[in-house]
Amino acid sequence: MPKVRRSKKSPPEGWDLIEPTLEELESKMREAETETHEGKRIHESLWPVFKVHHQKSRYIYDLFYQRKAISRELYDYCVNEKIADKNLISKWKKTGYENLCCLRCIQTRDTNFKTNCICRVPKGKLEEGRVVECIHCGCRGCSG
């Protein structure tokens, strides 16, 4: 089982409670990175990596902000060690971005018409029966 990458600095109290879950997510990440991409579109090969990255950040976010199960020191440690994405978590705290899948979906420079990604459009605004799939991360609608 691969260990979660850490610096030489010892982790704060409570690390032993979240380490098994983080190791499991890290092994999923390694599987996603080594998965064959034959027969897939260029963007599709990165979707599993985005999904696992989102899961790790969401896990830390839920523990700290929703359930208040970990200390500020442990949260800061996870952010500094790049286990959780600080920028994505800061967006989740803002109104309207609670379910944001990745930061690329709100960057206007990555689209043709300088707008947000199609997955950010509310389902009620789209035509009936239309399947929405983000080209960046494979999200099927994260606007709410």
TrEMBL record:
<comment type="similarity">
    <text>Belongs to the BUD31 (G10) family.</text>
</comment>
<dbReference type="GO" id="GO:0005681">
    <property type="term" value="C:spliceosomal complex"/>
</dbReference>
<dbReference type="InterPro" id="IPR001748">
    <property type="entry name" value="BUD31"/>
</dbReference>
<protein>
    <recommendedName>
        <fullName>Protein BUD31 homolog</fullName>
    </recommendedName>
</protein>
<dbReference type="GO" id="GO:0000398">
    <property type="term" value="P:mRNA splicing, via spliceosome"/>
</dbReference>
<dbReference type="Pfam" id="PF01125">
    <property type="entry name" value="BUD31"/>
</dbReference>
<keyword id="KW-0539">Nucleus</keyword>
<dbReference type="InterPro" id="IPR018230">
    <property type="entry name" value="BUD31/G10-rel_CS"/>
</dbReference>
